[in-house]
Structures are given as C-alpha cells and as structure tokens.
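Lecture notes, unit on protein representations.

Consider one protein chain, 586 amino acids long.
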Amino acid sequence: MRSMRLIVIALMLATAGGGARASAPSQPSSDLGLGCTTGDGSYSRVSTQGTYDALPGELHVLDSDVDGQPIQVGLVRPDVPADLKVPVIAFASPYLFGGLTEDLDDCRPRLTANYVPHGYAVAFIPIRGTADSGDCMHMMGNAEQLDLDQAITWLGTQEWSNGSVGMLGVSYDGSTPWEVASRGNPHLKTIVPISGVNDIFHLMYRNGGNEQRGVLVLNALYYEYGFVDYRVGAGRSPERMVSGAACPEAFKGFAAAAHSSLTGERDPLGYWAERNLRPGVEQHYTGSILLVHGLRDWNVDPGHAYPWVKTLEAQGLYVKHLLGQWHHAWPDSPSPGDMETKRWDWADMLLDWFDHWLKGDTDVDLGARAEVQDSSGAWRTASTWPAPDAEPYELFLNADGSLGSEPSEDSGIMPVAGLDTDPVRCRSCVSFTTEPLTEALRISGIPSVRLRVTPTLAAGHLTVRLYAGARQYLYALDQDVALLRDLVGWGQEDLRFPDGGETAQPVIPGMPIDLTISLQPLDAVIPAGERLTLVLEQGAYGDHIPSAPTAPVLIEVGGTTASLTLHRHEPSPASFFTPAFPSPED
C-alpha cells in the first residue's frame, strides 16, 4: 500500500461518533462534483493512436446490495457505432480523494488517454467510505468486496458492454482486483495487480514480525478516509462524513491489529480472515493475471506475491510475470532513486494484454510468460519465475566468520545480542563473508537461511541481510545508512514462528530451535571479484519493527548446522533483450 502518514489514533477515536446512514439514489447523475485529484505524472503512451473519441464523462450511483449505501461509478466511454459492444477497464481505489471531475481525462490519463481511443470504456470506482461512496472505510472487508463485485457486474451487463472487464492498479488500487477475483465474478476476465495486497495479515504480521503500519496505524489511516474531506467543497459530502465517522468496522480493525501486534497470530474473531483473499481466488477465479512487482519494493514486498502466486499458476491460471528493479510504483514510472528501469513500452504491453483477454484477439502476441530485470539492469524473458531449472547453491556459516561452499570442521557459538546502542556500528551483529568470487554469480528466486538457535529469554527474533561487499560497518535501525556496497536480500523471523507458519510456538530459554528464514525474492548478479556478506542482527527489517522484547540469541555455527541456500541460474544469452524506450512525450 502507499506510504502511510502517521495518524494520531486518539484523535481518530475521539472523532468517531453516532451517525445516520445516507440514502442512495439509484439513477445516473450528471453532477460529477467529486473531483479526481490524483494525477499520473510521467507515464507511457501507446505507440499506435486509437480512432475513437471519448464521450462526455458519466457518473452513475448504484444502491449497494449490502445495505443500500451509494456506490459511485465514474465512466468514460468511446464514441463507437451503436452496434459495437466494448470491454471495460476498471480502476477501483480509495485514493480518488476528490472523486471525479466533469473532465474525466484528468483522472488517470494513463488509462483514459491510452485506451478509450482504442475502444475501451474506463471505469473509476471509489471504494466504500471514500470519495462520496457511502458508509465508512472497511479496508478490504466483505462489504467492500461485495460493492466492487456488484459494480463489476453492473459494468459487464450494460447494453453497451461486451461483458468483459479487466481491473488494474498499483498498491491498494492493485489490491481491489484480488477482491473481485476472490468472488469469482464471471465478468472479470483479467487482472493486473501491481504490488497489490491479497492478505493484509500476511503483509503486516508474516513470520511473527510486526510491520510498523500494523500497530493500529493502517486501520486508523483508512478509517479517516470516511470522514475527512480531502478537497474542501468538492469531495466527501457532510452526510457521508457523518456516516463515515460512525464505523464499528474500524474498531474491529483496531482490536485485531492490537491482538496481532502482540501475538503475531490472526485474531480469533476473524477480522483478518475476512480480508484474506487467497482462498477465494484459489477457489473461484478463472481469469488471467499479469502480475507486476518491484523486486526492491519495501512497501508491499515481493515476498507477499511469491511463492503464493505459483499456486495459481499450478492450478492452470495464465500468469505473466513482470518483475523489475524498482520500488513501489507503476513499471513506467518508478520511484525517485530507482535505477533506470522505466518500461516505456508498458502501455503497448497492456493494450496487447487487454486486446487478447477482453476483446478476444488471439492474434495478439502476449510475449514471454515472464520478463525479469536483474540487479545489473538487464532484462530477460523466461517461461516463468522463479526459474524451475535454478540450481541450489549452499554456503555454510563457519566459526571463523567465513561463508564457504564447504563446511568447516570447527564449530562454535556466536551471540546475536539485542538492539545495538550504536546507531551506525552494529557491534552486536555477526557476519559471514565469502572469498572474492572467481566468476560472476547469478542468483534468482527465494534464498533461505537455516539455523539452530538458542534463546536466552522466552522471546526474540532474527533479521537477516545479504550484502554484496565485505563487511566494514553496519547500521542497526536506519535503512538509509548503508555502509556496505549493495543490499542484495533481506528477511526476518520471530522465534515463535520457526516454520514460518501462523501459529506461535513456545520459546523456552536454553532450548535450541531449528529455524529457517526465507529472504525476499530476488534476481541479482554478483560480479566476479566481489564478496557476499551475510549479516545476522536484531534490528528493523524494511518496514518491520523489531520484536519486543528483544533478547540475545545464540547461533550455532560450523559444520553443516547453519547455511545459506541460494539458487544459481544461467539463462540463455538469447533470452536477454532491450525494451523499447521511446520518450514519454512521443
């Protein structure tokens, strides 16, 4: 989800009060007084101009089947012959703060300007409790899912529609497609989730960790969307703001977040289970998936998508993977500070994708099933990702601090202490370093670290970082102060969850625990002459805060007890390609 602003939770709680539900007109309205305040900035253009003009924007208001609350649907349709039915590209979001203006070309022009001229209707759906849709913010709950499902059905059954709908977006906007997919809507033929969330609990509390947004902040942030007018005089109406403040669902979320922050487990009342979209997608969705994710994304990390998406692929769903070295962004507009990763051919790729899945044009070339950018910036094609022919490559954590392909005969115990008091030199960390590589090492997939650890208290966690570069100084808390050359991979696990599951196990001081920590998915090239350095510490991990309380942990090293498993992959030279990079102004 997008970067979160800190919320004063006490203020949120104090603001909530009684309110009345709003009535919901069912007829289309010409009053587009919502205002779409989210621009796209720089984005790619389709290389072939479409032939259709856009009709004037429309705003339709549906009565929710859940409770009669209004569901807004903004619509831009192409001016096509009356007998030509068109497919729909739907963008469902909480971030249409002001809603939609009369000139809907101002709202996500990357969609309207590119695809309406090619014969697509583009729909904008502010989710429940945002813009001027009714009730309060349910944050991916059942009511939100049902509203979106209803809106997609409405779009697929209009007399001008060919019945096929695709959904896309990034962050929360990339999560709403999973919501409708989980419902098995027959009109939803394809989804393009870009760093989307399919299970909030898994994102916030995986492996017993505690994402900093998970401690009430996430719920509080979205709760405020229901009663804060982000565009004074043109956004959320006073009536909707009143209904948005009276929000029992938000307080359920606060309770669930508090429970999971302390225990690392799902709440017993089912708040997180309701927002776990994975079972529904696995059981009901039959469409295609264009999965897009940044391999450097700390916001919705790639481990949220992998390996779960492989389950869908194994079930027979058509999945295309587009993975680049960017953070939390569209593939054609990475975040500031990213390496040159922009895919200016993204608009064309998306047009081909929609033409195939929404118009049934089987002559369209969808390209390879996977397009992946490694850490050197090179792009290659593959049949899937991770590569099934990647070879495991085990390196052992030795007692002399080396990271070697052969285990040492000596063994020992190394303590990883609590949080270091020095904000830059991590004196309580332990590290293991290889000899300089004699040849370049290409690693791809999901690395893992296998350890036997002994806790000193009934709590603790370990954070793992894999660097390209010899260890000199390490940071403890500030991810912006990197004093090794390159951070290649990272992971974290609470000792209560040694198998990576969701049920906490007792941590008994002095009793050894066999632990496997999965690192984030990666695709990296380590040049010849470089070293790999594996660091074990107890600091923060991306957006995840350290477990509390943090206690020293003893690590057994030497022999075959502790190891790092990477996956070496040597793709065919013919698989590498250079994407088209036209100017965005072209």
